[in-house]
Amino acid sequence: MEVIETVETLERHGDAPACVIATSADSDLARRAADEMGLDLHPDRPRPRRPHAVVDGEQADIVLAALGEDREQHLVQIRSSGQGLLVIAPEAGFELVRAGLDKAAAGHRAGTWPAAVAIALAVARRCDLVLDEIDDECQELEDRATGYASSPKRRTISRLRALLFRIQETQAAQQSMLAPDEELAQLLGPDQQTMLGRAATAFAANRSTATRLYAMLGDLLGEQDTLVSERLTLVATIFMPLTLATGFFGMNFGWMTDHIGSATAFVLLGVMVPAVLTAITLAVIHRMTRSS
């Protein structure tokens, strides 16, 4: 299948089915391709914001969320009919579209539907590669977060969790819309249904990986919160006997003002007694921690 990316190439193209790649549905290339292929771009509809698949007769409108190298999700819209394939994707998604088309050509799968399914499979595999990178980063964060982690590290963990949450949501949506009992699968032949099942399985695996990493980072943040709470509790416990001693010796009752008038009394009652109370408190905390 010939890949067309310019209006000039489209004008020179014959009647054979082709794949037109445009950056916007409002572009001249997309409008001309839609007219030749008998596709309705629905200009009155808002731009898609999430993955979905709509089947209308022999035509299908598929929207996939592809992960770029920057880990941002880019929407790739595939409009397919028997007369050709119109793919609307940002520049960052062109590489994925070409990879899918090259895969379909290498497997000698001619036709618009095999090409559309091959693009979906390429999107799933790209997400798998990105998740592998995130997995390595998560393992590194877990190793470096032994003990108390700094605030920048905790913010990095939180940002990764937010990214993984978005990934698992989009992968679940894409897995669902490619399911065998959905309209899109019913529109395809047996060979294309098999490829579509492979893409759905890949999206399901991506969802599982994102869910696992999301839970792992959540446990890591929970451990950090527990560690911070323990340290704050330890500091508060250490200051408890010191606060008690300060409050006691700050009271100006008669016996104290009559008997605490020397440096020895100050050292004994003002320094030694609080130090002994603090040591006893630490020993009790240590024993309770070991016993628990």
Automatic annotation (TrEMBL):
- Report TM segments: 232-251, 263-285
Regarding the membrane, this protein is recorded as: Multi-pass membrane protein
Q: Where in the cell is it found?
A: Membrane
Q: Which UniProt keywords apply?
A: Membrane, Transmembrane, Transmembrane helix
Task: Name the SUPFAM superfamilies for this protein.
Answer: Magnesium transport protein CorA, transmembrane region
- Write down the Pfam families for this protein, in alphabetical order: CorA
Question: Is Cell wall biogenesis/degradation tagged as a keyword?
Answer: no
Q: Name one GO cellular component term.
A: membrane
The record's section on InterPro entries has: CorA_TM1_TM2, MgTranspt_CorA/ZnTranspt_ZntB
- The organism's superkingdom is given as Bacteria
- What GO molecular function annotations does the UniProt record carry, in alphabetical order? metal ion transmembrane transporter activity
Please report the name of this protein according to its UniProt entry. Magnesium transporter CorA
What is the source species?
Brachybacterium ginsengisoli
Per the UniProt record, the lineage of the source organism begins with:
Bacteria, Bacillati, Actinomycetota, Actinomycetes, Micrococcales
